[in-house]
């Protein structure tokens, strides 16, 4: 076990337990150095994670934190189909050929009716948004917590059903859709013919110039050649969902087993050069450091994305209250209720501070609108935004400014302490006096 000694908690990150804090009443506490003076970005991130998880010490590779990776799954949604677009050419628009075509992009032409194409795009987009809404973005992809999985699964099944129903409609009406599309393009071809005849008549062959119908047929055939057969279109559609666990816990177990085999072999052989021992140790240390980094990133993603969600919602509602002369509109109240529900399912890892803050906001929302103290709600939301912004900054993120809403761009430690008191978070009173240094344990390769 390697002990990494770090200085006192940075801005917004109090010590969550005072059990081991030495008494400081005999002399006034010294003015603590700023976070920038005391902490590297990695140290600030780890302390932000520790605060959110309610821990004084975190051993990143201990089973407790690794088990979080088993409380959800990595989800991939793969949606494919023929995209029904073709590249526009100057001839399609009845324009002369450009001399520098590599500098000109004319866009695309649709090869399906707009209604059907928009419906397919909408279902696909909403399916992807649904996954993003229920998941955390991690190194391995979208991580859906078990608390959100069934709700996401039901939504996704509905999108899959709609998507394949549109495929079946396209296949069933293929001939009619193709005929209507070519008829629409024939009308466009006539307009293009007349433009070409006016702008550059020499660009057409003699037959085309004399016979509009032949030009239209040639134009329409170019479009028809871009439309695949019904069977090809049908086979291009797929909607598949992949589920997997975060692989790190399994890799750790495999590596430990491999390390055990190496140690056993070494004892059996009773011969191992110093160079070989040093090499093996370095390899194991690098592998362990990489795993610590991945766990660090995973936990940081959870904390940062949840607190970012809360910060954005709080500042949205604060802006609305300010814009509407101190009134809480129904839309903003609904946004806060949705936030309460989302935190309830996304906070599977136990961010106690966020839970306490959200409960306080929920209590104020339960009051009837006419009896609701909007000024108090505004103060609570400012406190929520202050503590979440402090954490996001410690995680290395740059949330949007809310200075005009009463939230400092760089909340001081005193401001964060006061915000915690406003929300009734227990740790608030303990953030004032801290030991000069404390230790965070990280497992070593051994």
What oligomeric arrangement do these chains adopt? single chain
Inertia-based shape: extended
Question: How many distinct folded domains?
Answer: 2
Order of helices and strands: EHHHEEEHEEHHHHHEHHHHHHE
Largest sheet: 4 strands, antiparallel
Main sheet: strand order: 5-6-2-7
What integer value in Å does the Rg equal? 31 Å
The separation of the N and C termini measures 7 Å
Helix content: 55-70%
Strand percent estimate: 5-15%
Task: Characterise this structure.
The protein is of the alpha+beta class. It folds into 2 domains: 2-22 and 31-69 and 249-442, no CATH class; 82-236, no CATH class. Helices cover 57% and strands 9% of the residues. The protein has helices spanning 35-38, 41-52, 63-66, 114-134, 146-172, 174-199, 206-210, 212-224, 230-236, 248-269, 274-323, 330-346, 352-365, 374-394, 413-423; strands at residues 2-7, 72-80, 85-87, 108-110, 136-138, 141-145, 238-244, 437-442. Strands 5-6-2-7 form a 4-stranded antiparallel β-sheet. Strands 1-8 form a two-stranded antiparallel ribbon. Strands 3-4 form a two-stranded antiparallel sheet. A hairpin with a 2-residue loop joins strand 5 (136-138) and strand 6 (141-145). It starts with a strand and ends with a strand. Residues 1-37 and 427-446 have low confidence and may be disordered.
